[in-house]
Amino acid sequence: MSNALRPASYPGPPFPNEERPGQREAPGIASLAAENVTFAYAGKPVLQEVSLELRRAEWLALLGPNGGGKSTLLRVMAGLLSPQRGRVVLEGRPLAKVSSWLRGQTLAFLPQSGPYPEELTVEEVVRLGRTPHLGLLGREGQADQEAVGWAMEQTQVREFRSRPLSTLSGGERARVMLARSLAAKPKYLLLDEPTAHLDLHHQAEFLCLLSGLRQQGIGVLTVMHDPNLARQADRVAFLAEGRIVAQGEPQEAITQELLSHIYGPMVRVHPVEGQPVVILGGSNSGAQRPRRPD
Ligand SMILES: Nc1ncnc2c1ncn2[C@@H]1O[C@H](COP(=O)(O)OP(=O)(O)OP(=O)(O)O)[C@@H](O)[C@H]1O
């Protein structure tokens, strides 16, 4: 493993010594859960009766076809969109009743794309991640500086720390935005396609980072498209046409039947050393275009 993105432990105590969701009302329920969530954009239904639970210290990968509602579900679980029916529960408390301040300390959400603060330097962007932890005067303490340094190290962006965001490549920028989310030191991390711009080396490093985050008790929910990466998650869930159509351990959930049903016949699942490996393609003739199921 290279010198960064390693599962180094976070400096200092994991969380400030303050009341947090779950401490009083429902001890032991260490999860962020969507319960029977139904959501529509201006009357257009996107999520229908969706229930999904992200537990502490696990990596849950959310997959499914384009437009299936994954990003919308992530936004609902982050408290950025309010469901028309159902609710999101953070460690036993309805998320809607958790103050935005506490929410910011407990949950971090990384969207699929900008807008990005292009003119800020990398370090300034990562420091923004500490905003929910700063007091009324906005003064940074040693814990904030340590968290920023730790987050930059974990994501291998320290070397760019003085450069404006606008000068970075897509993959470098993606790592900076991930660092900003990490700097908040949340209990739950919601990442929308975090590997989309990463090369293979940084995808591998990202997997190591996730393993370290889980060891520190952080629950991570990632939206992603590649089942071969998602296979390394603790659990996977598939969302299609606004419904969870399968979830479970990757070895059991990623099946030929399911993937053909969701993506069509050109997606093949082969068992390799007991793991489902997904490959794409059929005949080389190119004569037949893949058809998705109706
Ligand atoms: N702000 C919005 N207003 C209206 N419709 C929206 C809005 N955002 C998303 N949608 C629609 O909601 C549906 C679900 O979108 P969403 O982004 O949640 O899907 P997704 O599963 O994340 O897709 P992808 O894999 O392509 O990123 C799509 O049909 C999309 O066009």
UniProtKB/TrEMBL annotation:
Positions of region (Disordered): 1-25
UniProt source species: Allomeiothermus silvanus (strain ATCC 700542 / DSM 9946 / NBRC 106475 / NCIMB 13440 / VI-R2)
Gene3D superfamilies reported in the protein's UniProt record: P-loop containing nucleotide triphosphate hydrolases (3.40.50.300)
MF (Gene Ontology): ATP binding; ATP hydrolysis activity
Nucleotide-binding found in the keyword field: yes
Domain ABC transporter: 32-266
Keywords of the record: ATP-binding, Nucleotide-binding, Translocase, Transport
The name this protein goes by in its record: ABC transporter related protein
Keyword Phosphoprotein found: no
